[in-house]
Amino acid sequence: MARRCEICGKGRQVGHKVSHSNIKTKKVWLPNLHKVKAVVDGSNVRLSVCTRCLRSGKVVKRAI
């Protein structure tokens, strides 16, 4: 499973963790993904979606 939002394409970000003594080590930030049952083209689909897409209304959750 790719850790990527299926709506906006947001993925992991890479950078440095910097200590007090200025030693830099690799650090990875992952997006906040949720598995959601949504309606896409009239059919129910299970998607991996970031919370920003959920909050902004880019995903239509299926009715229960």
Task: Sum this structure up briefly.
The protein is about 10% helix and about 45% strand. With about 60 residues, it is mainly beta.
Question: How would you describe this protein?
Answer:
With 64 residues, this protein is mainly beta. The chain has one domain: Ribosomal Protein L24e, Chain: T (Roll), CATH 2.30.170. The chain contains 1 helix and 4 strands. It has a two-stranded antiparallel sheet with strand order 1-2. Strands 3-4 form a two-stranded antiparallel sheet. A hairpin with a 5-residue loop joins strand 1 and strand 2.
Which short descriptors sum up this protein?
64 residues; mainly beta; Ribosomal Protein L24e, Chain: T; two-stranded antiparallel sheet; 1 helix; elongated
Number of helices: 1
State the low-pLDDT regions, or none: none
The CATH class is identified as Mainly Beta
Which percent range fits the helix content?
under 10%
| Arithmetic mean of pLDDT | 93
Q: Based on DSSP secondary structure assignment, what is the total number of beta strands?
A: 4
Task: Give the name of the CATH architecture.
Answer: Roll
User: What string gives the helices and strands in order?
Assistant: EEEEH
Biggest sheet strand order reads 1-2
Largest sheet, strands/sense/barrel: 2 strands, antiparallel
Counting structural domains, the number is: 1
Structural class: mainly beta
Strand residue percentage? 35-45%
